[in-house]
Amino acid sequence: TGNEVAEYYQQQVEMLEGFNEMDTLAERGFLPGLSK
Fold this sequence. Notes:
By secondary structure, the protein is mostly helical. It has a domain at 1-25. Helices cover 75% and strands 0% of the residues.
């Protein structure tokens, strides 16, 4: 159904936002050992 697709898409968006936040922290040096 359309609702299931919407929920799946929302989960993907939240996951990508989490990855972007981790990238930002790594770039600022808050997470040593993580590099692109």
